[in-house]
Design goal:
A hairpin with a 4-residue loop joins strand 2 and strand 3. It is built from two helices and eight strands, in the order αβββββββαβ. Strands 1-2-3-4-5-6-7-8 form an eight-stranded antiparallel barrel. With 203 residues, it is α+β, with helices and mostly antiparallel strands. The protein is elongated, with a radius of gyration of 28 Å.
Length: 203
């Protein structure tokens, strides 16, 4: 009888240890899965750039999230108007996630290059703040730039919207003798102010 009771106690202790061990393993797996899910959701995003600035530019971009906090972006923007051309950039972002909200704050830094032609409106050259009345301006040509700023990213499941504001500094690589640098650096693709609105899909 004692042997049976001892065997029952030993079996009971063994089952409790195995149950606790199995529970611990299960919780560990679930924990790792949860962490992995947080880091992988979302992983990719497609951006449409500045629909509010559709009269002067529009673009597309792709984002790859390394994890919840860090992301890399490639952007391409097409310009028209006074400085028709294109611009490409590489961007790094650091997100600050708030799980109580559907929004994330971020800081960013970017660098890139572009090409700008010049198609002036003859009447516009007479405005002294942007030009001095000359009509022999040349195209700025190729330029490089770098900048950074802050933004806010609003998540709506697979859809998102965001706005960013910062500063950008551009330099024309081989500037012509005469070009409308006032307009180029104030409102053109070399603008010091980097203000954009984006929306797109993430998955």
């Amino acid at each position: 009888m004692h042997i049976f009771r001892d065997s029952a106690k030993t079996f009971s202790k063994s089952m409790k240890k195995k149950s606790l061990k199995n529970l611990f393993i299960l919780l560990s797996i679930l924990s790792c899965t949860t962490i992995r899910a947080q880091y992988l959701d979302p992983r990719f995003a497609i951006y449409l750039t500045s629909p509010l600035g559709i009269l002067s530019k529009a673009g597309i971009g792709a984002e790859y999230r390394l994890n919840l906090q860090n992301a890399l972006l490639l952007n391409y923007t097409e310009y028209w108007g006074f400085f028709p051309g294109y611009q490409g950039s590489f961007e790094y972002r650091m997100y600050f996630t708030d799980r109580k909200s559907n929004a994330e704050n971020f800081i960013y830094g970017k660098a890139g290059l572009g090409f700008a032609d010049y198609k002036p409106n003859n009447g516009y050259n007479n405005i002294s703040i942007f030009g001095d009345g000359r009509n022999d301006y040349s195209a700025p040509g190729t330029y490089i730039f770098g900048g950074g700023g802050v933004g806010r990213h609003f998540n709506f499941d697979w859809f998102f919207m965001e706005i960013n504001a910062g500063l950008k500094f551009a330099g024309v690589t081989n500037p012509p003798a005469v070009y409308n640098e006032h307009l180029f650096f104030l409102t053109g693709p070399g603008s010091y102010v980097d203000l954009n609105f984006h929306f797109g899909v993430q998955f």
